[in-house]
Write a structure and sequence with these properties.
Blueprint (H helix, E strand, L loop, with lengths): L1 H27 L5 H50 L8 H14 L1 H30 L3 H8 L1 H36 L1 H9 L3 H53 L5 H42 L18 E9 L9 E9 L3 E6 L5 H8 L7 E6 L2 E2 L2 H7 E4 L10 H6 L10 H8 L1 H6 L21 H14 L4 E5 L7 H9 L1 H5 L3 E5 L3 H4 L4 E6 L2 E6 L1 H7 L2 H17 L1
Helix pairs in contact: 1-2, 1-4, 1-9, 2-4, 3-9, 4-9, 5-8, 6-7, 6-8, 6-9, 8-9, 13-15, 19-20
The structure holds adenosine-5'-diphosphate.
Adenosine-5'-diphosphate binds next to helix 10.
Amino acid sequence: MAASLQVVGAVAALAVVGAAQLALEAIVAPERNATDLTVGLLALAAATAVSGSMTILQSQQQRLLGERLSQATWTDILAVTTRVRMINYESVGFSTQLERVEQNAVSRPFMVATALLGMSGNLLGVVTMAIAILAIAPILLPVLLVAGFPAVLLSRLASRAEFTFASRAIGDFRRRAYLRRLLSQRPFAAEARSFTTTLPLSREHDAANDRYLGLLRRQVRKRQAYAVLTTLAVGITLAGAFLIIVLLLNTGQISLAEAGAAAIAVRLLSAQLSGFFASLGNLQESAPFLQDLERFRALAPPEVEEAPPARPLRSEFVVDQVTFRYPEQSTPALHGVTLAIRRGEIVALVGENGSGKTTLAKIIAGLYEPDEGRTTWDGEVIDGEAIRASVSVTLQDFVRYQMTVRDNITISDPDRDRSDVSTVLADSGADEVVVGLDDGADTMLGRELDEGVDLSGGQWQRVAIARCLFRDRDLVVLDEPTAALDPRAESELFADVRQMLDGKAALLISHRLSSVRLADRIYVLARGEVIDSGTHDELVRRAGLYAELYGMQAETYLRDLS
Ligand code: ADP
């Protein structure tokens, strides 16, 4: 469609030159013929109108093209973000690259497509005008083309300046975007008011604004200077070409009508050349950004044909001598950790903040791959993807989907019958949450999209546990599933945790050691290593770290009661 508009545009431009020559010939003819003149002028008007309207039609067509390209680029970006290993998200390098790609790569492909389209249209225009000029006064053509060189040079300089500017401004640009989020979005609104962070944050935002404006101002000046120089070069070329036309006319080599047509053709050619160089500049400017997008695309692992099936746990899942280090960190978060979860068993992880519990839970959930050591499922070595298919997990920072309660729960297993929701609602205690809602399980949750209901932290946590149970797997990982529950809700949940798990094996992390007592085995972590393991009674008898932590919590409660 866009290409056919260009062809029509080029033909119309040629028609403008032809019609102008006709009209001029009719004007200067010794015997004036009114019909010829009218036909010539009408043809000129029509050709000019068609040529002009093609530009408008093309710019509308480009809107469509822009949206389609943006959609295609987003599909590519999302293919990477949803398929890359989870560990990428722990790396600063990846986050920066993602942000840059999101910021630039979506607009750049559009710029390139418009530039390419523009260039092909301009090229068509240059060729048609060149033919017209060749037919009238061939000598003009080399003059015009040679004079185009300064324009090429200037467009190269301008595009280089643009990339330098973009690299220099990115720091302030990102900082400003971050501060705008802090100052405008809901999760930050409460602290902004209670801590009166608004003032220092606004000040920092304004400073980033000023710095960016300063850089932009300098860049704009530079580009304006280049533009003036380019226009000057084009102007001189035009003047030169017009002088040659006058010379040719005076020496009788061309007629007056031909001179008029040649002048129009020269003018149109120079417009086409300017357009061509502007597009070339945009293309050069976008190249580094597109290379960036290509590098980002290459991060996605190849798409798997079929997800691995969920495995039943027949004997045990074992973490064997596992060492794991976060990207860009010198010390490992886990070191030589060995742990087993047998069929139907509840295993708990205990340790102080930063001891590596969540990291280990993520390895057991198949979200991170160990750097050393291995994981085995019923004796067979298993990788992250196969683990993820066979495990259900609730992490501390579970997602609060802006959907109905039912969708919030069933999203964990799209293959399972949605009517099973009522069972997991009862098992997780989320039924008590649902009872209080106007539309029961069909109530919209969250306040971001629709006018939904917001739940308390503890209520959300029950929904998250229900989601975890709905994904019916033989191994369940629960990282602090009760942190936001009130004491009654927590003790109710743990009182029937075995019933809730219904024979599933589970890895449980909880700071409340009273809840951990019931585990079949407890592993005590310190600085990324397992320093002890056993049942609650065994660990208390051994009087190690566990006994110390347990004693501290018990003492606090007893002191408060006495
Ligand atoms: P816990 O759950 O026991 O509080 P974590 O598993 O969250 O401990 O953290 C273990 C160690 O790994 C800590 O020293 C923490 O600083 C480090 N760590 C956790 N997450 C990251 C991360 N995304 N990048 C780098 N280091 C991390």
